[in-house]
Each structure stands twice: as structure tokens, then as C-alpha cells.
């Protein structure tokens, strides 16, 4: 079922764009929101969030990448899958809120811009100056 060359049905093997496309038989951007292929994707991503909640107790989970960006319908599905999987095991009512699992505010640019900010901070540290807020802060 999964396409990971190392593990078969690991998270990436099940929920990466090529895996979803292979199961649906078409490119990811052509898969409608009501296609049944999204249900197992939401399930495995919900399992990931379940693990993140129990191991790191995050205040928010930001999910980006090619699958999540452009598929806003996945956010409530992933959140529902996570809440259902946790089944009340942890008493954090905020995990059921829409703002708990969100897309990156910078969309597809979050990764490259984050790397630039980290580089800016490392340079400022090396230069002995405090890192500036930079031009890449979000409103
Ligand atoms: Zn793998």
C-alpha cells in the first residue's frame, strides 16, 4: 500500500504526494476533496499529530508541505482523526479547536523563509549582535 522504498507503509510511504497519487491513480492536484483516498491520509496524519501531542505537548501544530498546502479540507479531517485517536487520553481541550492544527502563515514559502531567518540569526550571533526581528516576521 505504501510507496516508501525503505519502509513501505511508513508515514511518508502512505501520506506523501506520490503515495496519494499512486493510490488515487492521478496527480494529487487533480484529486477532489471528496475522493476516498483522503480518508486514510487524514488517519495517518492524525496518528502523527496524536504522537506529537503525547510526546511534545505542543500548543499548536503547523502542517505544511505539498499535500497540506492547497488541501485545506485536510485540516479538520486530520484534527478529527487526532481527537478520535486520543479518545480523551489527554485533558487538553484546545486540541479540538480549529486553531490547533493550522497551515503555515507563509504557505509554501515557510521553509525557505524560515531557513533565511535562521541564517540571519546565526550571522547576527556570529557578529555578536542581537538578531533582529528581520523582514520576515509575520503580521
Ligand atoms: Zn519510510
TrEMBL record:
UniProt-listed Enzyme Commission number(s): 2.7.1.4
Membrane-crossing segments per the record: none
Enzyme class: transferase
Annotated catalysed reactions: D-fructose + ATP = D-fructose 6-phosphate + ADP + H(+)
UniProt keyword annotation of RNA-binding present: no
InterPro entries associated with the record: ATPase_NBD, Carb_Metab_Reg_Kinase/Isom, ROK
Cofactors that this protein relies on: Mg(2+)
Record's keyword terms, sorted: Magnesium, Metal-binding, Zinc
Molecular function as annotated in GO: fructokinase activity; metal ion binding
Tree of life domain: Eukaryota
Name of the protein in question: fructokinase
Source organism of this protein record: Diploscapter pachys
